[in-house]
Design a protein that fits this description.
The chain has about 475 residues and is an alpha+beta fold. The chain contains twelve helices and ten strands. It folds into three domains: about 300 residues, Catalase core domain (Catalase HpII,  Chain A, domain 1); about 40 residues, no CATH class; about 60 residues, no CATH class. Strands 1, 2, 3, 4, 5, 6, 7, 8, 9 and 10 form a ten-stranded antiparallel β-sheet that branches. The mean pLDDT is about 95. The protein binds NADPH dihydro-nicotinamide-adenine-dinucleotide phosphate (NDP).
Length: about 475
């Protein structure tokens, strides 16, 4: 039987075609509250898009742990044999919600695991590093990726001006301008936790860790020309590929791996292991197998399950911890704060964000607090209390951090080697990859004033004279 159309309060609607008017040519009646409700809802159909990572594609899936890493972590979600439901959201960084999927950009790679110890979010990218290592620079960097306030257009001049004065960015820029900067679909790229995190074992020992998610579909990419042609055909290339593959039962998979560094080694590496612009070389810190995740179910409602999915690095579980990575520390605040603004104070109560385990907190009231008291006992609305409300669990305390120093503002560019790691990447590329790296970079520099380009080329020369000269030759070819 067809279901009855109702108002949001459940009252049946007699006519959803014709407005209530005083005669066929007469004015509307205020009492047609169903019309008012309909128009009012339409006005409220949009929420603010994300400031970064606005355009996204996602799906539900399952994480399976196939290897024993219990020597490093007590996290139940990482125990061998465990399967955990999850939801994943991929995204571009700079484009707005309507941006074309196949543009060259870094891709977000955000994973939410619904564990029995609360949600664990891994909010990574398809690159192991980022453009900056000090969170003071994040708003400035993002401004260069967004629209110029006067022209309302993207500004390559702003991008290269910023990068030329921020050589720590050129490792990430090298990846962005390489084949990996334009993957053919979300399924054909790796994910990286990027930050250094920590793992805590059952005997409360800490190691530092990097997370890697390696595509089983292989790396496939589009050249600049192919990407332009693709965007001419469709602006939704990634959505079509990912949604279509899952609908057809071709479930994409990623191998989950980690690199582990002993806690005391952090002071001995030639690079700062908490620097987001650096990788840990595989030769020093080999990849360790952990498991695999598969995406196997499309959302029934994109808005409810993908657009309002709220990922935050602050969501961790016992056995997984943070590190002194400054950008991670800032994101622990700023991601949850972005959701409070965009979705509302109680965004964790939305079905897609709601943990599968019991939640007990003394946060109270506020707009859209639909869960009612969550303190664990009716008379307990403050803590401590004598009424059986939820209490802290000291057994989850992490070992004390042994890293400390004098509180000061340390110049993050002083004595930092920003050239060796992009050099290693440049050198491992074959001739074809390098040629595309040079031409993609040259094309991205179109229209930028020469003095700004010369500053950047000076940095490329320091990475490798061949890199700088390669870009110069590619620019000359463009004319
Ligand atoms: P390795 O030779 O062991 O690793 C090089 C890695 O580079 C590969 O494993 C692959 O990562 C990755 N890679 C290949 N082509 C590209 C590309 N176009 N863009 C980005 N990454 C690419 O050497 P090292 O570990 O000593 O690292 C050398 C350089 O490789 C680093 O300076 C860094 O730029 C880059 N790299 C290193 C990673 C790491 O965690 N050590 C991870 C990714 C890149 P993958 O196996 O993840 O696909």
């Amino acid at each position: 039987m067809t279901k009855k159309l109702t108002t949001t309060a459940g009252n049946p609607i007699a006519d959803n075609q014709n407005a209530l008017t005083a005669g066929p040519r007469g004015p509307l009646l205020m009492q047609d509250y169903q019309l008012i409700e309909k128009l009012a809802h339409q006005n409220r159909e949009r929420i603010p898009e994300r400031v970064v990572h606005a355009k996204g594609w996602g799906a539900h899936g399952t994480l399976s742990i196939t290897h024993d890493i219990s020597q490093y972590t007590k996290a139940k979600v990482l125990a061998k044999g465990t399967q955990t439901p999850m939801i994943c959201r991929f995204s571009t960084v700079a484009g707005e919600m309507g941006a074309a999927d196949n543009e060259r950009d870094v891709r977000g790679f955000a994973l939410k695991f619904y564990t029995e110890e609360g949600n664990w979010d891994m909010v990574g990218n398809n690159t192991p590093v980022f453009f900056l290592r000090d969170p003071y620079k994040f708003p400035d960097f993002i401004h260069t990726q967004k629209r110029h306030p006067r022209t309302n257009m993207r500004s390559p001049t702003a991008m290269w001006d910023y990068w030329g004065q921020s050589p720590e960015a050129l490792h990430q820029v090298t990846i962005l301008m390489s084949d990996r900067g334009c993957p053919v679909s979300p399924m054909h790229m790796n994910g990286y936790g990027s930050h250094t995190y920590s793992l805590i074992s059952a005997d409360n020992k800490r190691v530092w860790v990097k997370f890697h998610f390696k595509t089983q579909q292989g790396h496939e990419f589009l050249t600049n020309a192919e990407s332009s042609a693709k965007i001419g055909e469709t602006r939704e290339g990634f959505q079509e590929e990912l949604f279509g593959a899952i609908e057809a039962g071709n479930f994409p998979k990623w191998d989950v791996k980690i690199q582990v560094m002993q806690e005391e080694d952090a002071g001995n590496t030639p690079y700062n292991p908490f620097d987001l612009t650096k990788v840990w070389p595989h030769g020093d810190y080999p990849l360790i197998d952990v498991g695999v995740f598969e995406l196997n179910r499309n959302a029934d409602n994109y808005f409810a399950e993908i657009e309002t999915a709220a990922y935050s690095p602050s969501n961790i579980v016992p056995g997984i911890g943070f590190s002194p990575d400054k950008v991670l520390q800032a994101r622990i605040f700023s991601y949850a704060d972005a959701h409070r603004y965009r979705l509302g104070t109680h965004y964790e109560q939305l079905p897609v964000n709601r943990p599968v385990c019991p939640v007990h907190t003394y946060h109270k009231d506020g707009k859209m607090n639909v869960m009612g008291p969550q303190t664990g006992a009716g008379d307990a609305f403050y803590e401590p209390n004598s009424f059986g409300g939820a209490t802290q669990s000291p057994e989850f305390a992490e070992p004390a951090l042994k890293i400390s120093g004098d509180a000061d503002r340390y110049n993050h560019r002083d004595g930092n080697d920003d050239y060796s790691q992009p050099r290693a990447l440049h050198d491992l590329m074959d001739d074809g990859q390098r040629a595309r790296l040079y031409s993609n970079t040259a094309e991205a520099m179109a229209g930028v004033p020469e003095d700004i380009i010369n500053t950047v080329l000076g940095h490329y020369d320091k990475i490798s004279p061949a890199y700088g000269d390669g870009i110069r030759a590619a620019r000359a070819k463009l004319g």
